[in-house]
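Budget justification note: compute hours in this period were largely spent on complex prediction jobs such as the one shown. Inputs:
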Amino acid sequence: MKNIPLLFLNVVVIATCGLIYELLAATVSSYVLGDSVTQFSLIIGIYLFAMGVGSWLSGFLEKELARKFVEIELAVALIGGFSAPLLFLTFASVSYFGIILYSMVFIIGALVGLEIPLLMRILKDELDFKDLVSRVLALDYVGALVAALLFPIFLVPKLGLNRTSLLFGMLNAVVGLWGTWLLEPLIRRRLTVLRVKGFIVLVLLAIGFIKADSLTTMAEDGLFPDQIVYAKSSPYQRIVVTRGKLGHSLFLNGNLQFNSFDEYRYHEALVHPAFAAFEGEPRRVLVLGGGDGLAVREILKYPSVESVTLVDLDPLMTGLSKELPALAELNRNAMDDPRVEVINSDAFVWLDNVELPPFDIAIIDFPDPNNFALGKLYSTRFYRLLRARLQPEAAVVIQCTSPLYARKSFWSIIKTLEASGFTVKPFQTTVPSFGVWGYALAKMQPFERPAAPRTGVEFKFLTETSFTTLFDFPADMALPDEEIEINRLDNQALVRYYETEWRRFE
Amino acid sequence: MNLSRRELLMTFLGAPIALAACERSAPRAFPEGEIVGANWQLGHVLREGRSFEVAADKWQQVRVAIVGAGVAGLAAAWQMKRKGVNDFVVLELEKEAGGTSRSGEGSPVGFPWGAHYLPVPFRENAELIELLDEMSLIEGRSDEGDLIIKEQYLCREPEERVFYKGRWYPGLYLHVGESEADKRELAAFEEKMNAWVNWRDGSGRRAFVVPAALGSDDAEVAALDRISFGEWLRREGFTSERLFWYCDYACRDDYGLKLEETSAWAGLFYFCSRVRKSGDESQPFIAFPEGNGRFVRHMANQVAEQMRPSHAVVSIVPGDGGAEVVCLADGELRGFRCEKVIFASPVFTAPFVIRGFSEERPFDASAFHSNSWFVANLQMKDRPRSRFARDFPLAWDNVLYESPSLGYVNATHQKGIDYGPTVWTYYYPMCHEENGRTKLLNYDWRELAEVALTDIGRAHPEIWELTTRIDIMRWGHAMISPRTGFIWGGERQKAMQPYRNIHFAHTDLSGLALFEEAFFHGLRAAKDIYGDERKFAGR
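Corresponding output:
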């Protein structure tokens, strides 16, 4: 055989691919399951063990080694190549993700473990044993180094996990296909069938690679600064969770909802002023929107709370808050608390139809009013429906977008609340990942703004002094002189303000 | 692809749409459905002019018989009931009241079969306001005394969008791609309209106001009826294609007529009658998911006792002291001897049922032309997704620029339901067709469903999969046509006079098929019979 140096090149590629799959599996699992030490440790352990199993199994293969080598190559190409996309997809749709993950790692490991022993046996008649072992193993470790260097420096940042996976699958397939020529004298029978198989695998992966590029998930890789760990479309919205240096972020339709690094600032300001403004012991709390469960986490800090009714449109979102470990950890499993009832419904339609005893506190945490379907949730009609579900002394906080970036939008919401019969105390705070953010504290009768948050509750952000400054509005965020329209269903003035104001930053 | 489908689509949607649709030859899943409603077969029996013998024990005595439970008949009945008069019956051909304002019931919301909105009346329209008040639609009054309707009943934004060359744009007038000349013409058009809004005659009357009877009869105004709206636009120097489209759409939408057939008076009425003063917005719309079905249901509930559905009036014999009304109901003939008849059916039917009408010809009923429509209600399991991120979202009224249809109305819009199942109501006026009515009755459910789905499918290819059911109403005589010369031609003015003991009350008498006009004539007829309020009270 004259192609021995080329076969050694294959060893490098095989080794690189093998390690890449291992790294991919470990990275995906630590992204989606969290706890990277455990995940890396488990994946490496299982993978190496599976390689050992593969090596051992190679002893049972007797005939047609060259053909089997090629077939194994193609199998690795297919399974390894589609591993990352498959893991992301299954994570979004199944609960037994762990089983799939570890089985996949085991299968890939076993197949990779078969490769080198088989190749060595194919080459055993061409080289001395000592040369064979030294060269194959040396190149094997070189491949590992190449993979280890490429993976963090080039592949993950430039290609993302899915495309890396598919690309190395293609390399694997090329090795297999090429092998049908290099090892041609050893294969002989049904060579064409094998080549067709190899070609099909290569084409499938290439389609995956190209399609992946046009798939939204892939497109999102470019949109989001951090690695996507979860991406799925519900009938209502596109939900994306990313993980970066600062922690996890949640995006709905591409709009940031929180970053775990500073979300406590946002949610403490969203929830605690309502409790501070309520006189007596709040028992019944209504949350509209807020499917991430983070506002509920803050609400559950009050022992007097007997029930929390959370109305969020999207069952996928509220389910994710329960089941995505990163999210459940962040909201301290708030969604599993027996006091919490989750209702998946459009809050507008729900408020119009529901018959429930009145609520003491309402926390309203909708996405910003960037479309008409959301705009209705900030209208006089909506706030009047809300009033009808509150007890007369109830306190409400509403997230009102940024008074700095969208000043008219912010004040339009305040005006709309006033026009609906609420007394409103606007306030604002800084959430670094959002910028300056605005809220409305409202009650159905005149009230003094609360001086301090309730005692006995643990805060990461609020203090007595910082609490009073929330209600200060610097000149550039104060109520503008010009007339601000009230947002009604039949004018949707807010959506128009919002579009105009935020378009400046696009 | 068979030829007949192509012919069908050519007939209804025009060559470009038909050819594009026929290029896709793949068979599609076809939803279920049927032809519903209007009992035109029974209606046509009336034309035979037979004489009818009613058994002696099938006669009943009432003071007033109201023929027809459309908006006019219901308004007359509502008015009498309100004034304490109970001795009357309302005879309706169909199984239910409402006429072209009927609606269907469904989940998650009801849906219209015809008329689907009411512009907020001016403060002067006191009686219509009383109806709205009775229905608890009113929030209050502004400082100027204008009506404030509760927010949830006013049409929610976005009200309209238009589909043009593959994309949706906000509003009805197509701004995208307009030239400077187009902009100038639109501004000039608006200026003309403002001038007519501000116009007053010697007695201080507006040229165009709702109800139309309160507008001016000045010669300058009446002269507008002698030319078509298209002709008027040309005489005023307008040439902009999109302005012509906009005006044509307005004529098709409100009158079921093309621009060139519509009286210029009626065209201007559309643009001017609901604007209080120049520069104001047009009066906002009151809208319900089930359209004007809400109003007719309210009025029908008030007079449930007097309502006689499935009573086809086959003959009215006016006499010296009253009239005899004969109906076909439950397979037998029933008679009503009454002092007065309020004839609240389409005027063109008068000669077929009123004995002596054809001979004495109190007015020329054949001058009252009506046009035909078909309306399709699509039950949808979900709504189509936007095809482009920045496409204008689903509105209440969704208009297809290149289509002869009027587009579709989304029933869940007004309830704030923005996700999941809904009902779309597709409107198609037969105004581009010679003999549209005969043709309409010759097409079956599947053919008309094919037209509706193909047309909507241009904007939403997935409509075929999303539609679980499509029902179709063929309106043979949908509404009166304000063709050139009809409004001020004299016949409708004559018809406002009673003929012997028969008082005519129908929107036809205004020459415009509008809720407010029907309501006005119903009340007018009731008042003609009972005179002023004291007489009402005396009865």
